[in-house]
Every structure is written in structure tokens, then in C-alpha cells.
Amino acid sequence: MTGEKRRGRPSTGVREAVLAATEELLREVGAAQLSTRNVARRAAVAESSIFYHFGDRLGLLRAVVHTHLPAYKEVADRPAGQGSLRDNLVALLDGLESFYLRIAPILAAVQSDVELRTRFAELDGEVGPQRSLRPVAAYLLAERDLGRVRADLDVDAVALIITGVAHQRALLRHLSGRTSTASSAQVVDTLLPTVAPHRVP
């Protein structure tokens, strides 16, 4: 029947149901109520199926993060040499902010749990913050090779600035519902003179 939640173990899509339930709980009640029991109840599956598919809470959160990685890749893997550098950086900053806003509940869950935070730190090369810098730095490096940014530009430092601003703007929206007083275009216009070689292409 339409409008009714199906009870019992789904015949297919157990992983998908568990991942969706995890994100719903994180948004609604936060990390404090994120137990495998509550996730199983929300997903209408046996709690043992969570352990079977994900191992533990860390595996579950890691899987949730991975569901968002294609969206991050789509935003961060920008083709160099197309459009104006300014427009590309504004779009990149806006896209990263939207991505970080979507995963804010997951980040909060990790930060609020010492064990999870420690274990996530051990996975830094796989799902941690260093991974998020690489495609942004790669884009800037490609633009540098084309001569559209300074030849001596420290692409890692600029990637850190861009992702840091995006994360901070997303955090502000997540916690207060307000946007930053400086628009993404204003941020880029402030950064651009230190990035562009002489004039913006």
C-alpha cells in the first residue's frame, strides 16, 4: 500500500536501506542515537545484517562517506583550460560547499566519538581530509601547466584554502542556517590576484 512503511527484512537492497537509514538518523537525532540497533530498526532489517555488510559502526560510516565520493569527484575533478579561471573557482567553491553541507552530519558523528575519530584518522589516505585536497590540487596543477595560474603557485596550499573555505561555509550553514557574509565570488576575487599570472584568462 502506498504511504506505508514496509515491515520486515527487505528482500533486496539491504545495504542501501541501511545506508539511507543511517543518514536519516544522523540528520534527525545526531550521532548520540546512532546505534546499530536504531539503524536496523529504521531500515527494517536484522541488526546482524549490519555487522555482516559493514562490520561495525566505523565500517557503516565509512560506507556512507563512500556513497558521497562520486558527488565529490564530480565537483572536484574539473577540466582545466575551459571557461574562465574565475568562474571555475567560484563553481568549485560552491560545489564543495554543497558537498560538505550534505556530509556535515557524518563529520559530526565522527568528531563526537573518540574511537571513531581515531580510527578514521588511520584511514586518512582512503576517506580522510587529505583525499579531498588531491583533485583540487590536480585541477590547479593542470591550470598551472597551461599557464593560467602562476608558474610558482603552491597548488597544495591553494587547494587547502579553497577546501577550507568551503568546509567553513558549509559548517556555518549546517549549524546556524545562515550563509557566510562573503559570497563565494568575493572569496575568489580576493584569492585570484595571488593565483593568476598577470590577468585572469
Key structural traits:
single chain, about 200 residues, mainly alpha, Arc Repressor Mutant, subunit A, Tetracycline Repressor, domain 2, 2 domains, 10 helices, about 70% helix, elongated, disordered N terminus
Task: Give a short overview.
The protein has helices spanning 14-29, 36-43, 47-54, 57-76, 85-111, 114-122, 124-127, 129-145, 155-176, 184-195. It is mainly alpha-helical and 201 residues long. Helix 1 packs across helix 2 (36-43), helix 1 crosses helix 4 (57-76) and helix 2 (36-43) crosses helix 3 (47-54).
Q: What is the oligomer described by this structure?
A: single chain
Instruction: Please state the CA-atom Rg, rounded to the nearest Å.
Output: 20 Å
Q: Count of DSSP helices?
A: 10
Shape estimate: elongated
Determine the N-to-C terminus distance.
57 Å
The CATH architecture name of the largest domain reads Orthogonal Bundle
Would you identify the regions where 5 or more consecutive residues have pLDDT less than 50? Answer: 1-11
- N-to-C series of helices and strands: HHHHHHHHHH
